[in-house]
Amino acid sequence: MRIAAIDQGTTSTRVIGVGDDGQPHVIHAITHRQFFPQAGRVEHDPEELIRNIRLCIDAAGKLDAIGIANQGESCLAWDAKTKTALSPVIVWQDDRTRENIEKLREDGAASTVRDRTGLLRLKFQMQHQRPFGHRMLRWTDKTSTSVARTVA
Question: Could you say which of 8, 15, 33, 41 would form a disulfide bridge with 70 (CB–CB 3.0 to 4.6 Å)?
């Protein structure tokens, strides 16, 4: 059985295979660009990430099983009908929603959000002003005409 994992990370995409000896090994890796459109903003091109994932899968050859790990807090809006990206990927390092995070902290919402959602990283995110995925989606909805048009 041929098993592999895709690790789509902050700076690269790689496919890791499991050899006959049960040990993992990198089959293929591709770096991708990061964009910094303004101070504190970090973005990726979603089409570049998809292209790199496909190249990694192709390099792995025939597989019986595959898993994927990605940037858990990065955010992207897709059109469900056309399957096209409506925004760039807003990377987990981005701080465009800093004011929202600061307001949550000032309002004492950390324990409420943690209790309702189970987000254990809330304290870290609030201390470091990192955006929550839902905050990034809300920001995208309010600032992107293509997202707003699709949602409407």
Answer: 8
How many helices and strands, by DSSP H and E, does the chain display?
6, 6
Strand pairing class (43-44; 12-18): unpaired
Name every residue whose Cβ is closer than 8 Å to that of residue 133 and which is 6 or more positions away in sequence: 73, 74, 75
pTM: 0.70
CB atoms within 10 A of CB 85: 17
- Residue 69 DSSP one-character state: E
Q: Which tens digits make up the pLDDT trace of 72-84?
A: 778 888 888 888 8
Tokens of residue 89, six digits: 């990927």
Q: Domain 1-70 class?
A: alpha beta
* Spatial separation of the C-alpha atoms in residues 114 and 120, rounded to whole Å: 6
- Annotated domain spans of the chain: 1-70, 73-152
